[in-house]
Specification:
47% helix, 158 residues, 6 helices, 60s Ribosomal Protein L30, Chain: A, globular, alpha+beta
Length: 158
């Protein structure tokens, strides 16, 4: 990560890259979009229309796409490459932290992305708590009964 990166939000993208939670470049981003793993997709302010259309066409229901107020050179410097037009954050917590920091640095411009990310982060935290309360076991579906709600005894039906 370059030391001359002034934005705290961009520094978080560098952290996401080091954590393995950031995919950079058009093909890598489209791949994680197709897999449904992209949580937040960021485009440089000078990204080409072709990249914007391709990213938008492949966006899954979990991905949020935003255009940053930073050029490709600055985005690339933050994540340790020469130029980067598009990147995808795959970790929900890091995506939420990045969006919060970006909204703080640019008031009135990025608040609309916070609500869905906050909702998803809260839902994930709730699921994690519930799983911990069950002793690490996943939630299972209730057993179904056959024949008007009466439990089925296999010995009686034989």
């Amino acid at each position: 990560m370059s030391e001359n990166v002034s934005s705290g939000a961009l520094k978080l993208l560098g952290l996401a890259r080091k954590a393995g939670s950031l995919q950079c470049g058009e093909n890598a981003v489209v791949a994680v979009e197709t897999e449904g793993k992209a949580r937040l997709i960021v485009l440089a302010e000078d990204a080409s229309e072709h990249i914007e259309r391709r990213v938008d066409a492949n966006a899954g229901p979990k991905a949020i796409i935003i255009k940053l107020p930073f050029p490709k050179e600055e985005l690339g410097a933050a994540i340790g490459s020469a130029q980067t037009a598009v990147a995808a954050v795959t970790d929900l917590g890091l995506a939420n932290a990045f969006a919060k920091k970006l909204a703080e640095e640019h008031p009135g411009k990025y608040e609309q992305i916070l609500q869905p990310l906050n909702k998803r982060t809260e839902k994930a935290a709730r699921r994690k708590r519930e799983t911990a309360e069950r002793g690490g076991r996943k939630k299972t579906a209730a057993k179904r009964s056959i024949g008007g709600g009466k439990p089925v005894n296999k010995e009686e039906n034989v």
